[in-house]
Batch of 2 targets.
Target 1
Amino acid sequence: ETGVTQTPRHLVMGMTNKKSLKCEQHLGHNAMYWYKQSAKKPLELMFVYSLEERVENNSVPSRFSPECPNSSHLFLHLHTLQPEDSALYLCASSPKQEGGYGYTFGSGTRLTVV
Amino acid sequence: QKEVEQDPGPLSVPEGAIVSLNCTYSNSAFQYFMWYRQYSRKGPELLMYTYSSGNKEDGRFTAQVDKSSKYISLFIRDSQPSDSATYLCAMSAGSSASKIIFGSGTRLSIRP
């Protein structure tokens, strides 16, 4: 593992379910991020937290709800998702909020919405 | 036109070959240029980072930035099967996460 741990690794959920993705970092970083990676598409930034405060919300639908209870943990709560939300969801952390040159990514959660 | 264009491949080369991976971009404000490597079922890991123009070398890897042509390259010398992965270019105009733009990735396969 890279120091950023994501659980679960795989998740299949129905459109009416509620589930949560978890991310934990042991690197002492102060910023954490959620990214969405779809096949053959660039990574899409979803949310940015710096010192547990949300600093970016990249026009993400409200069916995705992030939570950052402390600087080591980040959650993504999911409800009433659509099949097009099926993707790899990646968590990343960095020493401070910045533009990508200090990111450590987790291995991701492969989400399938049925 | 996309801000960052990257050929998706797949690119297949024999072991020991020199590999050239490229991205073009349209935003002249980009100053930070990165290459990430992503193995199957893993998250991306930062491989090379360059600020502004010029070359940067790290072992078998060389990153090159040509701002006049809006073109960046990653060269891999003496390629190994363990280099088989998807390579993502990324670039940023500033220090905010919202300003980083990733390419779609090039899938590279090194044949033994």
Target 2
Amino acid sequence: EVQLLESGGGLVQPGGSLRLSCAASGFTFSSYAMSWVRQAPGKGLEWVSGISGGGASTYYADSVKGRFTISRDNSKNTLYLQMNSLRAEDTAVYSCAKDRAVLPNNFDFWGQGTLVTVSS
Amino acid sequence: EIVLTQSPATLSLSPGERATLSCRASQSVSSYLAWYQQMPGQAPRLLIYDASNRATGIPARFSGSGSETDFTLTISSLEPEDFAVYYCQQRSSRPLTFGGGTKVEIK
């Protein structure tokens, strides 16, 4: 059974940093791309960033480029999102999602998410 | 970036009725469009990928069609558990993008 468990969310001041983690199990982690998708309270889905199965290729939404860094440790079956220079508009539930393929495409399994609140 | 526009924003229907949801892309995405269902408080579920392919375990009452810029998700006969929010998503180019969603509510 595929399981994705996010952690690391919380309250942070504007301009601050946070590192999210996603522990994966139930599938061959290195064979699939992974992404972070966020959902602001009462809003729709926004793809944030994706990384290829091997970790060599990374992709970002324009809204986070230069501030967020996605990475993965295939030996630990864990996905990360380093978030710097956080803004109020980054407030959302951040979910990790497993892709159907080795590059970011479509998401066939999702975690329940971790809430990030950016506020002073 | 490719913008996806979903319509209508809200669809009010009764169980047993047919639901037709639309997703329009700002430029061609070929057939690289997916549909997701999100129930309140739950993670999204992949329904359809590459315009018309049902994901594993998805009932046959869900079908997708379309290509290039115009796509449709059809639910042939609404079951009580189908009342939810539906999102389209393109994988033709990065950044990957989602539509704004269509809420299917009980009339």
